[in-house]
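Incident log, support desk, overnight shift.

02:14 A customer reports that sequence design results differ from what the structure should imply. Their input is reproduced verbatim below. On-call engineer (initials T.W.) acknowledged and began investigating.
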């Protein structure tokens, strides 16, 4: 499966319009779509839980990732890592949480993952949706997203986990 796909090029009249538009910009733009199907290893650096009322909990957490694992060795996601913060308010077992993760790739270029926690699995793992926003270097102008699913934690301390992603990221 080819995980890096070029954006189809227009033909005929559309090609002329696209050429004129492209010429009006000073910097050349290249586009590609990355299959974001990957998993990410991480560990919690801290977790704070506040029981504010019966059936009402606020959770804040910090995590640091060990890097994306991809099937495509050429994927710009491969090996990207960095810190995350999570704020999650859970009322009657229903999460209302958000997370922010800054990822740095092998060249030091950065992108932001913004996530929305939508549900918990039977094992207590978070699931939800995410978006990608480019911050520096090759990621500037990148966008996309999809869904994520976290495992419930592993290891002796139950702080290590994997998050798996689907979706696409569009690169400029």
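02:41 Re-run completed on a clean worker. Output:
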């Amino acid at each position: 499966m080819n995980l890096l796909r070029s954006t189809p090029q227009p033909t005929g009249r559309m090609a002329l319009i696209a050429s004129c538009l492209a010429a009006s910009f000073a910097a050349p733009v290249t586009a590609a779509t990355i299959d974001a199907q990957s998993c990410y290893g991480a560990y919690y650096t801290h977790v704070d839980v506040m029981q504010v009322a019966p059936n009402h909990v606020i959770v804040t957490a910090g995590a640091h990732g060990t890097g994306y694992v991809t099937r495509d060795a050429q994927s710009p996601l491969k090996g990207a890592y960095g810190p995350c913060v999570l704020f999650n308010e859970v009322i009657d077992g229903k999460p209302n949480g958000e997370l922010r993760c800054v990822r740095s790739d092998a060249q030091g270029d950065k992108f932001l993952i913004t996530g929305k926690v939508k549900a918990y699995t039977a094992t207590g793992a978070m699931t939800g949706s995410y978006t990608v926003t480019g911050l520096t270097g090759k990621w500037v102008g990148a966008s996309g997203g999809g869904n994520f699913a976290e495992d419930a934690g592993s290891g002796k301390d139950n702080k290590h986990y994997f998050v798996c992603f689907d979706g696409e990221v569009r690169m400029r």
